[in-house]
Amino acid sequence: MILRNTFDQTGSLRAARFFLVLAILAGAARVWAQAGQPEAASGFVPRPAVTSTGFMAVTANAYATDAAAEILQLGGNALDAAIAAQWVLNLVEPQSSGIGGGGFLLHWDSRRKHISAWDGRETAPRAASADFTRHADGSLATFSEILGTGKAVGVPGLVTMLEAAHRRHGKLKWERLFRPAIRLAENGFAISPRLHLMLSDDPLLRRDAAARALYYQENGEARPVGEILRNLEFAATLRGIAAGGANALHSGAVAERIAAELARRGGTLTAADMNGYRPIVRDAVCGPYRRWRICGMPPPSSGGLGVLQMLGLLERTEMAPADSSSADAVHLFAEAGRLAYADRARYLADPDFVAVPQRELLRPEYLAQRARLIDRRRSMGIAAPGTLPAGHAQADDDAPELPATTHVSIVDRAGNAVALTSSIESAFGSRIQVGGFLLNNQLTDFSLTAERDGKPVANRLEPGKRPLSSMAPTLVFDAGGRLHAVLGSPGGSRIINYVARTLVALLDGRQEPAAVLALPHVGNRNGATEVERGRVPEALALELERRGHEVIRIEMTSGLHLIVRTADGWVGAVDPRREGVAHGD
């Protein structure tokens, strides 16, 4: 049973470090090009790991990592640092997360030996309808028709969740956690290559007048890499939240302004919806894997259950743990993914609206039964969900969960830890900007159809409901109960595969953290087997096809951030596919 408690509730050095990171990335790219991509068999060139005997912070951007380090050096704890980093991430990578969205947070209290799982997922407005994807004539709208409209926007939950978590776990004053982001918003930050690329490629963001004025030049082209961008309106919004707490966002003028803007664009979210949002603290979902204990988020995230199911299935296939990149290992990993994602689509949703069979899905007997479906020589093709007791929804989800999210991993000097994954869903969310920040499009994470063949879909939209997610902030503990690793990733519905594969390579292959994050990605979401284009050897892809896999070669831009315990302290590693930075002290 899941416990549910509802709450009422600088400059030059920083810039130098940022451009050093860009130089490292550029140098790595030159190495790959000059050598004809010789790293294809093992992935990207690993970014150097960082070691520390004190704290460790890993985020998606150098500015955000600096903010976390600033708070930790002041004596703040892991939760304080994660909050400060999150405000900065909203500013410098607005495509990925922010106060207009939501998130999931795992907090490890090293003194009490206790995990809290904080649910700040967005909720559907009270007036929202399961037919939100249908035209007036009853025909089904496409995803692109809903994106960029008020219909896509759910009630944000990130600020309220972080405020409630800070009341429980924080150490420094709430107001102090905003200063790095406010300072950066007012003084400006250098636009990164990733932000510039995503601004250039996005066809919708320019349509919002406020976003166009902030991120684009007069000719409509994205502001160039390295240009100093100031967001004074966001600084003012942050000042309000710093002084007035989450109420400054969820009530009063800001909430009214959000509601009015969404109504103008066809949305149903109201100021009352904003004011009524409450975060939930749940029990983490934990399970064994070999000699380790893995803990993640419970529903409405499928991340924790999905990762644990995949690991449980792999353990029961007796896969040799040494080489996670062999053809046998990749085949088994893909087949385990088929089975886990089949169960995800059938059974997982907001547990306050749907009976989620969490215990049944992780029962050893059930996992053993499912593992017997895996043929070591031949792919099973599309997997059917497992058969569970009556009373669970019987039609499969078809939500297109997209890969635009961020993740923060932090351990403080006392050994407290935070794994925070947050999102506004697709890149730049709904493309609707209010108060200097973008609003989410998380309602598109509900199933686009409420029922199929007369049977209800578990993840159908209902008023007040939280859409299913794949976000998978994860904590790993050793046999003695000591925290061993903190990790998570962006990546939409591929997150489960990213995190599970990282754990297999880290815990079974015992590879160094930086090398683990540079491995090529493979995975299956109960369809085609996806392999990372240009990184997985062609011979491996052909062998998978010989075993009956439909193989597609695609870009798989994860953003894993990993912290692992060492004999002397901690090592932090970042995904070489993005702009992450680790800092320890």
Topology:
Blueprint lengths: L4 E2 L4 H24 L15 E3 L3 E4 L2 H12 L4 H15 L9 E8 L4 E7 L22 H4 L11 H12 L9 H9 L1 E2 L2 H9 L7 H7 L12 E2 L2 H13 L2 H4 L1 H13 L6 H6 L3 E3 L2 E5 L2 E5 L6 H14 L10 H21 L10 H5 L1 H8 L33 E7 L5 E7 L9 E2 L2 E2 L12 E2 L2 E2 L17 E4 L5 E6 L6 H14 L4 H5 L4 E3 L4 E4 L5 H9 L4 E4 L6 E5 L4 E5 L6 E4 L1
Helix pairs in contact: 2-3, 3-6, 6-9, 13-14, 13-16, 13-17
Unreliable parts: 1-42
CATH topology value: Glutamine Phosphoribosylpyrophosphate, subunit 1, domain 1
- Rg, please? 22 Å
- Span from first to last CA? 39 Å
* The number of domains: 1
CATH-level-2 architecture: 4-Layer Sandwich
What characteristic shape results from the CA principal axes?
globular
By DSSP, the count of extended strands is 24
Structural class by SSE content: alpha+beta
- CATH superfamily (homologous) name: Gamma-glutamyltranspeptidase, small (S) subunit
Largest sheet features: 8 strands, antiparallel
Compact overview of the structure:
With 585 residues, the protein is an alpha+beta fold. The protein is 35% helix and 17% strand.
Describe the fold and architecture.
- The protein is globular.
- It is α+β, with helices and mostly antiparallel strands and about 575 residues long.
- The longest helix is centred in the first third of the chain and has 24 residues, at about 10-35.
- It has one domain (about 5-280, about 400-585): Glutamine Phosphoribosylpyrophosphate, subunit 1, domain 1 (4-Layer Sandwich).
- About 35% of the residues lie in helices and about 15% in strands.
- β17 (about 475) and β18 (about 485-490) form a beta hairpin.
